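To the structural biology subgroup,

Please find below the input and predicted structure for ABC transporter domain-containing protein, which we are adding to the shared reference set this quarter. The sequence is reproduced verbatim from the submission form. If anyone notices a discrepancy with their own records, reply to this email rather than editing the shared folder directly, so we keep one authoritative version.
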Amino acid sequence: PGQGNVLLQVEKARKQFGGVIAVNNVSFDVQAREIVALIGPNGAGKSTTFNLITGVLSATSGSISVLGRKVDKAPPQEIVKLGISRTFQHVKLVPDMTVFENVAIGAHLRGHSGPVSSMLRLDRADEAKLLAEAARQIERVGLADQMHQLAGSLSLGQQRIVEIARALCVDPMLLLLDEPAAGLRHMEKQRLAALLRELRDGGMSVLLVEHDMGFVMNLADRIVVLDFGTKIAEGTPATIKTNPEVIKAYLGV
Ligand code: ADP
Ligand code: MG
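Predicted structure (tokenized):
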């Protein structure tokens, strides 16, 4: 793979919590315009890997680079500014605020790093830009009709998509999604997958942690498999599906 295409490079990342090695010399990359899935049984180190990438945790050793620049010590706001935006494992919307208001919080993070209350100190031109950006992203994900509904009144599938709209407001090149399909109905998963493909085809990359194998196998361009903190396989869905090591890790035989 050409160096110029590498957005994110994780190199021999290791994270130790006391006696537990949560992530053990894991290396992989994410290139431009691809969907990569990070899978593995519970406790494999997926969330820890996400937290290393997003600056929530710093690695015990190894390195994380964004566009060739080491970001090991960068705080989360810095990582966001470099073009990496995320959603969380559990929905983090404010249920009694509208879709628009929830997304506007994300729009505010673009180019700013202060608390949400500093939104009140924006001048009118900035505020107008921010609100326009929020509306644009809601339209982009297909939720224009729900823009002024309370977030809590939407289906879980729609709420996940609102979270994605919020993450898109910072104009990311790479979107990190933590279990985006969890708890969704079949139709909602299909809608989510279609949106993620559309974003990829528009030039964005996606790195997702996901337990739903059907969803991952249909969507991912490439899959990285972790088990007990170690990368045990990497490849296309077709090769991962039939990899004996992967089958063993999942079935525990
Ligand atoms: P996954 O997301 O794949 O289920 P995690 O990254 O959450 O796995 O956890 C990997 C391992 O690291 C597990 O054994 C977990 O108990 C341990 N671990 C994760 N976070 C911490 C922490 N903050 N302190 C101690 N151990 C942790
Ligand atoms: Mg996890």
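Summary notes: Residues 18 and 142 are 45 Å apart (CA to CA). The chain has a mean pLDDT of 90.

Regards,
Lab coordination
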